[in-house]
Amino acid sequence: MRQIHSDILEFRGSHYEFGFKQGELLKDSIILENRRKQWKAKRPRFEIDVQDTEAAYRRFAPGIWDELTGLQESLKLPMAEVLRDFGGYRIDAMPSGCSIVTGADFMVRNYDFHPQTYEGRFSLFQPNDQGYAIIGPTSRITGRMDGMNEKGLSMGYNFTHRKKPGDGFVCYLIGRIILETCATIQEAVELLKEIPHRGSFSYIVTDPSGETRIIEASPRGVDIRTSNVCTNHFEIQQHENRNYLKDSFERMEAIQNQQSQTEDALLAFRLFNDTDKGVFSKLYKSWAGTIHTSLYLPKEKSVWFALGGNQQPTILDFDSWLLGKDLDIQKIHGAVETDIGFAHVDKQFI
Predict the structure, then answer these.
(1) Which of 154, 165, 265, 280 ranks highest by number of CB atoms within 10 Å?
(2) Nearest to 174 by CA among 25, 21, 159
(3) Which residues pair with 149 in a beta bridge?
(4) At what angle do helices 171-181 and 185-194 cross, to 10 degrees?
(5) CA–CA distances in Å: residue 338 to residues 1, 242, 289, 290
């Protein structure tokens, strides 16, 4: 059992200032050291065109490009290196697990991945230049694994496969762009139809209306369905699925067979976070172990967050924060049943 934490980062200001601040925090950090060691150990299997990437950001998320510029100037690195490590456009995303269920007033999500990819950062950002305020855990600094924005729109994504990648954004940057630029599930659907996709993922969105949409997105097509449960396979684009889906179907069946536990936010949180109910995963060495459970309440703009299983959630009042009241905690603590190191606390790399 490893005791771990996530650092909470609160910031109000411009995207450029936010990027610069994050660069200052990353300097001499274990996260940055591990990232550099990673690329010394293996060459990236992708090429980054800085002008092409900037054009894509200018079209879909110009504020995040300003954030990347702030990161570059703070870290004093070439933009190509910043884009490789934090850009999320035309780079490779690793396979993962993940499960999501929504109710009339909540979305709960298990983030299942490899510990050495987890950077232990939880961000609240209120921009004063463009885009909506966002709360949620970060991925590759600029991306969001899941989250909610000031309009109550909540988002999570689930991996399907990495085969035949396209020229586009990866999942965690698309998640960030959804939250930053969309106010409703319909706006999120329209964005996902337009934005270029690097890999194949399901994006699950809900908002204060209580409706949910699951958007199956691959480089070859985008389909929308209405459901409240999603794991790691497509229902419409079944030709895109991986051959081995046993674990994905088992977690889906565990949720569907305990439907009475998905009618209430607290019961749903326990269904996902308790390690004996069939949804929580311990497959850390297979890139599919549950690292965090997050629950979003769009109507009241509240977030529950826990690291590891069998935990009591830390409750964060996003609504009060939007009105200017800072949080009274700086870290979220938890425990994960693995001996694998984490990217933000252990000097090692994949």
Answers:
(1) 154
(2) 159
(3) 134
(4) 130
(5) 6, 26, 9, 10
- Which residues, other chains included, contact 36 with Cβ-Cβ below 8 Å and sequence gap of 6+? none
* The token pair that represents 203 in the structure block: 């994006």
Is the pLDDT at 36 greater than 80? The verdict is no
User: Side-chain half-sphere of 301: how many Cα atoms within 13 Å?
Assistant: 16
Alpha-carbon gap, residue 97 to 219, rounded angstroms = 20
Which two structure tokens, joined as six digits, stand for 116?
Answer: 């050495």
What is the amino acid identity at position 67?
E
Average pLDDT over residues 298-309: 98
Q: 13-24, pLDDT tens digit by residue?
A: 999 999 999 999
Which one-letter amino acid corresponds to residue 329? I
Report how far residue 125's alpha carbon sits from residue 17's, in angstroms, rounded to the nearest whole number: 11
Choose among 157, 238, 166: nearest CA to 197. 166
Ordered alpha helix ranges (H), 145-203: 171-181, 185-194
The answer, yes or no, to whether residue 45 has pLDDT greater than 60, is no
Whose tokens are 């900037």? That residue is 54
Where does the pLDDT of residue 32 fall: very low under 50, low under 70, confident under 90, or very high at 90 and above?
confident
Helix axes 62-75, 171-181, angle to 10 degrees: 120
Tell me the average pLDDT across 320-347.
Answer: 96
What are the distances in angstroms from CA 46 to CA 59, 88, 143, 317?
22, 12, 19, 40
Tell me the C-alpha to C-alpha distance, in Å, between residue 92 and each of 78, 80, 172, 174. 20, 15, 11, 14
- Whether 67 and 18 have beta carbons less than 8 Å apart is answered as yes
Spacing of C-alpha 210 from chain mean position: 21
pLDDT of residue 96: 78
Q: How far is CA 90 from the centre of its chain?
A: 17
Residue with tokens 């964060």: 316
